[in-house]
Amino acid sequence: MDELLTKDNIHYRDLAREIAQKYVKPVAAELDRTGEYPWSVITALKEAGLMGMWIPRDYGGEGAGLLNLCIVVEEISRVCGGVGCTYVVNALGSLPIVLGGSEEQKRKYLPDIASGNKLIAFALSEKDAGSDAGSLGTRAERDGEGYVITGDKKWTTNGAAASIFTVFATVSPERGTRGVTGFIVERGAAGFEVGKREDLMGIRCVPVNETHFKGVRVASSDLLGGKEGQGFKHAMMTLDVARPFVAAQGLGIARGALDHALEYTKRRQQFGQSIASFQGIQFMLADMATQVEAARHLVYAAARAVDAGVKDVSKISAMSKVFATDTAMKVSTDAVQLFGGYGYSREYPIEKYMRDAKITQIYEGTNQIQRMVIGRALIREGASV
Ligand code: CAA
Q1: Which of 62, 75, 351, 364 is an active site residue?
Q2: Would you say the pTM of this structure is higher than 0.90?
């Protein structure tokens, strides 16, 4: 349904498709083996002006909106889910500043991110605070003119590559979510350390690290939005906008898996004919393609809602994340099945899609949490019968 895309959407799609073919495709399998960071792709994205497409024009970005960003993420993830993640996690890290930062913070930090000169990461999760993001153990204590942050973060995606971190800590644990406060911390701050890298099943080129805060001093000017106790809301507002681009990552993985499955089943000969000529195989391909198309419409609808300034996007955003990432898992698993024994071998590209798909059902809120967000919204809205 490319006919429904605007000229602008097509411009971004074609740009991202070209980068994916030219820079991502040749290195995807190698990065999966070595775990190296895709610096050459980041440079290409930077040169194409795509590193700050989600950042408003006033701060050096393109102000291109969420739908265009989702289209770019979809195209890159169609070739490699890991590279898609290294790219878009910069949007996750910078959205707290875009949505909740002061004018001074936006002017200070966003232009370097928009130009791609600095990468940024989002440090919310901890060992014992994952789905329950309001129960943070990391403390921020007032100290003279600023704060001192102490604690340990886990699952800091892009940790080893980023120079700036949006960090969530509590100024008063007894206040629960209302004590959570956001800060901006730069790499090099005394007491800040990037720690252990996780050995992951998929998205293996993405450095996902522990980050440690050993009495890190932060000036009051780096208190996100200049107000204590707003951090949980800033994090939730960020995730409402971010979940559609994880959905787009899932969508891209599903599309890529389907591309490979189609190509393979047409080429593979058994019983004297192409296996794509068998009805059983065609039914599988048909279901996969239908799920991909449905996911695509839901992801684009969620992104369009954000771009249109719809007030409460939590439900549609969560729906897009659940549906597109469950689709990524289902379609990539079926694609492995269609490759038969070869699908299970690392000599073929398809098993990577299945490994990369799995994380999309887990990060940026597990799909169980998304269903909770959707369920709560449904109950709040009620029904007219
Ligand atoms: N926007 C603005 N405010 C919101 C909000 C939203 N979407 N959702 C909740 N809030 C506000 C509520 O109004 C409430 O405000 P008051 O204190 O004024 O009443 C406050 O936040 C607390 O809300 P809840 O009572 O609903 O909070 P909760 O503790 O029940 O948690 C939750 C809700 C949805 C489960 C939330 O904790 C959540 O989303 N958990 C999952 C965390 C998550 O997604 N982590 C991913 C980390 S990032 C990552 O994975 C990235 C990566 O690696 C790439």
Answers
A1: 364
A2: yes
